[in-house]
Amino acid sequence: MSTQKLWYDKPAASWSEGFPVGNGRLAAIVYGGAEQEVWNITESTYWSGKKEHITSQSSGKDDLARLRQHFFDGDYEGGERLASQLLEPSKANFGTNLPVCDVILKFKAGGQNVTRELNLENAITKTTYEFEGAKIHRELFASHADGLIVCKLWSESPDGVSFNIHLEGKTDLFESWNEPQGEGRLSFKGQALEKLHSDGECGVRSQGSIHVETLGGIISGDAGWVEVSNAKEAIIYFAIDTDYGVTGDDWMSVGDKRNLLAKAKGYESLKLDHIADYSSLYDRASLELGTSEQTLLPTDERIHNVSQGKGEDPALFALFFQYGRYLTLCGAREDSPLPLHLQGIWNDDQACRMGWTCDYHIDINTQMNYYPTETTHLSESHQPLIRYIEQLAESGKAAARDFYGSEGWVAHTVSNAWGFTAPAWQNSWGLNVTGGLWIAMQLRDHYEYTLNEQFLSQTAYPILKDAALFFLDYMALHPQYGWLVTGPSISPENTFHANGTQVHHYLSMGTTLDQVLVSDLFEFVLESAEKLAVDEQLQADLKKAIALLPPLQIGQKGQLQEWLEDYVEAQPEHRHLSHLHSLFPAYRITPQHTPELSEAARVTLEARKSTNNHEDVEFTVAAFAGCYSRLHDGENAYEQISHLVGNLCFDNLLTFSKPGIGGAESPIYVADGNFGGTAAIADMLLQSHAGELHLLPALPSSWSSGQYRGLRARGALEVDVTWSEGRLVAASVRALTTGHTTLRYGEQTLPFNFEAGHSYSLDSELRIQ
């Protein structure tokens, strides 16, 4: 059996057991039932709410100066009261992504011996079961090439397959009907309306259709149902479109046209084109970590065994790694209209019905969705996020002007399909002044991995320059220290005690996350301006500002401080590790160059992990793994990855946030754990920051032998590595540009010059062959 398959010996009983499929815009969770099959349909642009101008109560710089004085004076209560008056706008019609509908197939007979699989190598799901001694088969895929979901059903019985199909909407205005042009056609329309995150009157409209065709048998239809009787085989085509970002009504017929074109093309051609389109990206990288007898078990049993510590299963971690790449390709293709949201491209109909919303959390979650994109060789999947950042940078100019009286642009904690950039409606979690900057630093990552000079000059530099202009104008000198600081701002969602009280405070000046992000921003914009030979005055301003930025602080307990002051942590168990951004995914802290700060980071990790009620949710555990990887601690990184896979994954290997976080009453799927875990695994095997290309930097003993192919490194490099018994055997480095780095393996280092178009083979001693 292929090691790149999820498989089960029973149908999915719930959303958390189904298979995710997607084409970058349209997606489904596929249950694989015998008596009844369900596809939970989602579409990335199907959002409630609308674009609105958010009104500020702040007059700009004067109010900001008055507000800051409270914090400089240590008056946190007064400062937070004033901030709530000035920087806490209404929620308005922010909205949320919503599920579209369920496609439900009901079969006239059930079946036994159900098996179902999701093949990551071709992105096709299959279900097989038996009825009266004959096998019945289904396979389904979401085609990016042709823009629809396709399912084929066939039977080895002479009686064929018999079923009926209908749709159940997830919003009030959803309706479906039979088309008079043919018995095998259903059309539907809906609107993304809800009243928790918007007024219930505004939202994206959708329209689409289902076409059913058969080989043999009878098709009939009435009252929103299509019925198939005794067909040798049947093919179902599902397509949808929305009015997001378009004018006029032409969009209404796009889904139906897709189905008509697909029928004319034929199932086998659709399938071949789907595989070719998908595999051209997926096959770029691979990972093998060894096998064991566990690989013969259904995936849910393997997950359970990891949680119980029963037997070694290195192949499950390789599967989890490739699953993250699969989910990236399902949710983010080069032409996707929007980036991955809190639940990727899927929607469990839970997060959108609670306070979280199924939106863009840009205080870590959306960023983490893209942590593995470059290193796992899926750079094109960054494009929808890059376009979205361009949208944020444009709409964020109004937020900068209206809330702070500054030039440039800013965005905060959350955003939506229309580029919301204002502070959110509750300062305790919503006044994260570097949220937009944090997501925009993905532009730096994309450039560092590709070295695309046109991208730097035309996209990354203009956007990040405007962000730098905002912070240069917005930041203030701390009257006590003389440092240039941000604020008032939060350290995402965390609180502290000050002035000897037990009050939970959330706003302060110069949080560690802010100073790290601003430092990275200023340095990158300065380097880019020098490279491009532009903006001499800006270069001078940045040099002055960089000299005034505060250094990272080590507290009395030896920890890396989360705030400029060594406050008492009000929530030492907190899920966010914002101050450790400097270690992972950023690289201001490294064991080689900043050993004292590295030790402070380790103290911070151990203290956070050791609390009795540690909030070890999915993104936290992925971040822990990444941080330990950066400390070259493979065993602790592996422990975190094992915890993520074994204890924070549903049976379908999707990660979840535990009950109790943000008011959740049950486990809620959050995509960042899958993507962050994939990134951490890649980081354990290859690092390429701080001027080094580091092979196997955090290899755990449980992965004693293995190989990977096609991982990407900064400097536009592609790397293959083989190892055995915990030792490097060989490596290959392919250069797409000309440059220089330092190769590292363990304590061995080697200066390495490379030329574009050349491939270099290395032995276990880093000797070039």
Molecular structure report:
Among the domains are: 5-47 and 95-283, Distorted Sandwich (Beta-galactosidase, Chain A, domain 5); 695-763, Sandwich (Immunoglobulin-like), CATH 2.60.40. It has a nine-stranded antiparallel β-sheet, covered by helices on one side. It has 18 helices and 33 strands. It is α+β, with helices and mostly antiparallel strands. 31% of the residues lie in helices and 24% in strands.
Please specify the SSE layout and strand pairing.
Blueprint: E1 5-8, E2 19-22, E3 26-30, E4 36-43, H1 61-72, H2 76-86, E5 101-107, E6 112-119, E7 124-131, E8 134-143, E9 148-155, E10 161-169, E11 175-178, E12 185-191, E13 205-215, E14 218-222, E15 225-231, E16 233-242, H3 254-265, H4 267-282, E17 286-288, H5 299-308, H6 314-331, E18 360-361, H7 365-369, H8 383-404, E19 414-415, H9 427-430, H10 435-440, H11 442-450, H12 453-474, E20 476-477, E21 484-485, E22 496-497, H13 512-532, H14 536-548, E23 568-569, H15 595-609, H16 618-630, H17 634-647, E24 656-657, E25 668-669, H18 672-685, E26 686-687, E27 692-695, E28 706-713, E29 717-724, E30 727-735, E31 739-745, E32 748-754, E33 759-763
Parallel strand pairs: 27-31
Antiparallel strand pairs: 1-6, 2-3, 3-4, 4-5, 5-10, 6-7, 7-8, 8-9, 9-16, 10-15, 11-12, 12-13, 13-16, 14-15, 17-28, 18-19, 20-21, 22-23, 24-25, 26-27, 28-29, 29-30, 30-33, 31-32
Helix pairs in contact: 1-2, 5-17, 6-18, 8-12, 12-13, 13-14, 16-17, 16-18, 17-18
